[in-house]
Automatic annotation (TrEMBL):
GO terms for cellular component: membrane. SUPFAM superfamilies: Fumarate reductase respiratory complex transmembrane subunits (SSF81343). InterPro entries: Cytochrome_b-558, SQR/QFR_C/D. This is Succinate dehydrogenase cytochrome b subunit. The keyword Membrane applies. The keyword Transmembrane applies. It comes from Adhaeribacter soli. Keywords: Membrane, Transmembrane, Transmembrane helix. The chain crosses the membrane at residues 16-40, 60-80, 110-129, 160-182, 203-224.
């Protein structure tokens, strides 16, 4: 197994792991967004609570939670490892350096963007995910089944101005993170061609904006209109 360890502990190997886990997390964002769109139903939260109950009690989804956690851990760990390795390889900055001429803002600030997203993720999990596992939510009866009233927690949280601001800023950070990361993942995996790269880049930009706008619209909707 030494070849396997050496491969995936190298810079190239870590970049491959980051690319695969990053694309996997993108698929999670799509699924999560589609489910959370139930918040816009004008039914007092019934559809969203049914969706949340299904996600929390389906055995396949429960297994995927561990896969998702592993994806986050590997993605963050490799990002930190690559950053430290790059700094160690060049401890003294170039005397003349104009990175803005060779890269965009998001690619030069992936660490900052990732840190903002990580802080938001910790707060978000503490506010929504943890109460579903510890029984800290009110209950509501739907079709004869007692389920967690996660909708009320969402509605109450999105009435807190600082949380709404944090949420929106984090979605902006996520959008910039995805704009660079999406294309970079395909390039790392060898899917880089002058004919297809512009299409991948364009799709990545559209994906980043649409997904993050969808998430950002939720707290703004509750804060302004509910």
């Amino acid at each position: 197994m030494s070849w396997f360890t050496k491969t995936f502990s190298s810079s190239i190997g870590r970049k491959i792991v980051m690319s695969i886990t990053g694309l996997f997390l993108c698929s999670f964002l799509v699924v999560h967004l589609i489910g959370n769109l139930q918040l816009f139903n004008n039914d007092g939260g019934q559809a969203f609570n049914v969706y949340s109950h299904f996600m929390g009690h389906n055995p396949v989804i429960r297994v995927m939670e561990f896969v998702l956690l592993a994806g986050f851990v590997f993605h963050i760990w490799d990002a930190v490892a690559l950053t430290r390795r790059n700094k160690a390889a060049r401890p003294i900055a170039y005397a003349v350096n104009h990175p803005e001429q060779n890269s965009n803002w998001s690619s030069r600030n992936m660490g900052l963007l990732g840190t903002v997203i990580l802080v938001f993720l910790i707060i978000h999990l503490y506010n929504f995910f943890l109460p579903t596992k510890t029984g800290g939510l009110d209950k509501v009866m739907i079709d004869g089944v007692m389920v967690d009233n996660l909708y009320i927690r969402v509605a109450e949280s999105f009435k807190i101005w600082w949380y709404v601001v944090l949420y929106v800023i984090s979605m902006i950070a996520l959008a910039y993170h995805l704009m660079h990361g999406f294309q970079s993942a395909f390039q790392t995996l060898g899917l880089n061609h002058k004919k297809y790269t512009p299409a991948i880049k364009g799709f990545g930009y559209a994906f980043s904006i649409i997904v993050c706008l969808g998430f950002a619209a939720m707290p703004l909707y509750f804060f302004l209109f509910k």
